[in-house]
Amino acid sequence: MTTDAHVAAGEHPSLPTLDVDDLLRVLDDGGVGRAVVGPVGRWLAVDNEDGNRTLAGWCAAHPDRLAHWATVNPWYGSRACDELRRALAAGARGLKLAPSVQGFGLLSPLLEPVLDVAEEHGRPVYVVTGVPVASEPLQLTELALRRPGLTFVMGRSGRTDFSLDLLPALTGAPNLVAETAYNGASLIAALVTALGAGRVLFSSDAPFNDVALELERVDRAGLSGDDRAAVLGGAAATLLGVAA
Amino acid sequence: MSLVDLHTHLPSAAAPAWASWRQSDALAELDRFGIARAAVMTLDGLAYDAVTGNDVVAQVCAGSDGRLLPFGSVDPRRPDAADELRRCADRGFHAIKLHPWMQGFSPLEAYMDPVAEAAIERGLPFVMHDGTPPYASPLQIARLAARFPELTVVLAHGGLFDLWEDSVAAAVRYPNVHITMCGTAPRAVFREIVRRVPVAKLTLGTDGGFGDPDLRRHRLSVHRAILAELPDGDAAALAYRNAERLLGLT
């Protein structure tokens, strides 16, 4: 069963998003069995608990199909840490951060307390990268080197301006994981070669992207059977505890 | 529906793809993808020498029966940039591609003036890479368009990804700013651009020849999904009519 390591949900100010039923239909149509939903928009920026609880409800209603990333805005300080502890205890698979939306630089000390919580729980951190000045891929590499006890997912692959940074950044620390969304077949193949398939997660960023087209890019990467299985689910099972 | 691809690049001379580049193969690929005509732009000319790049573009487009549309480039910092633009016009080029970050210039500096004036004089649109700060933001390029209302300016990527709303703002505010939908952004963003910008200002591109060899196939899949959602007249405008009008092909 194919696992999509990041699909989007929430009230976005500029782009349409889906409720859970429509999101499941999109996944069905695209041939994706399971997905890890990440909050966007209002849930990501300010109303973190609202989003985390809503997504947890979606997952409780569809435990065979959905898991979720929780988010907290580090600017909430101890309240952010409390909410992250609550959300992870309630089943969230990891922490999602989006520096350009949440208003911090990746190397800011502001992050340390929430990263401590993620590390205490042994959960990965998904970071949306590619927006200067706050979330460049090599900034995430530096953060990964500083925090060797955490695993970070290079969300959005530094797209667009930092796509050339992607491989140098991902190979710069062993605790960095790639995702496939927004990458072409040849780059997906290069990521698997450089990192090993266990460090590459299939993701679509649906409903913004088209699930079937993002899956087609993985299919066209020419991966071996084992590598393909890892990218399409095995790596997510290990990293996120989502059954393959 | 047959398309005009308003954004493709020739491979760099250092790339294996250039050693094997043949016009017949390029035309066969257009056929395979249902593309009637495609803009041809340099890569090396943006990085090294625009004049040599223009010569190569002219050579590869010659004899294609008008299917490969030569776009030239100039280095705006050079004092002879306007002369090179006129040379492009004289040899039948259809537009001038400018790439602020590859070419190392800002669209806001004074050396742009004679180049813009020559483009107006010869009726060549500027096709400008956009979406990449610090010097290729849509609103910086739009400022150039505002200073030269007779100049046609095409934002070649519609904000590329994060600056798509800036590109929409530019196209809505300035009559002479147009958008080619050719970026990393997901389909949802292109849908929004189509919803917010008058369709007459929109064209399609793939960036074929740049980076991922599969990029053209992928982007065309996204474009065709968007075209399928539009009324026939709007779809035809987006697919080819607007491009033909912009380039003076009709």
**Major beta-sheet overview of chain A:** 8 strands, parallel
Gross CATH architecture of chain B: Alpha-Beta Barrel
CATH topology of chain B: TIM Barrel
Q: CATH superfamily membership of chain A, which one?
A: Metal-dependent hydrolases
Give the averaged pLDDT of chain A, no decimals: 97
Question: Which sequence of strands runs across the widest sheet of chain B?
Answer: 1-2-3-4-5-6-7-8
Number of E-state strands of chain A? 8
Integer average pLDDT of chain B: 96
Rg of chain A (C-alpha, Å): 16 Å
Assembly category: heterodimer
N-to-C terminal Cα separation of chain B, in Å? Answer: 17 Å
Helix content of chain B: 40-55%
For the record, the CATH class of chain A is Alpha Beta
How many individual helices of chain A?
11
- For the record, the count of structural domains of chain A works out to 1
Considering DSSP H and I runs of 4 or more, what fraction of the residues of chain A is helical?
40-55%
Total number of beta strands of chain B: 8
Could you give the distance between the termini of chain A?
6 Å
Q: What sequence of helices (H) and strands (E) makes up the elements of chain A? A: EHEHHEHEHHEHEHEHEHH
Provide a count of the helices of chain B: 12
How does the helix and strand content of chain A classify structurally? alpha/beta
Task: Name the features.
heterodimer; A: 244 residues; alpha/beta; TIM Barrel; B: 250 residues; 8-stranded parallel sheet; 8 strands
Describe this structure in words.
The complex is a heterodimer of chains A (244) and B (250). Chain A starts with a strand and ends with a helix. In chain A, 43% of the residues lie in helices and 15% in strands. Chain A has 244 residues and is α/β, with parallel strands linked by helices. Chain B has a single domain (3-246), classed as TIM Barrel (Alpha-Beta Barrel). In chain B, helix 5 runs parallel beside helix 7 (112-122). Chain B is globular, with a radius of gyration of 16 Å. Classes of the chains: A alpha/beta (244), B alpha/beta (250).
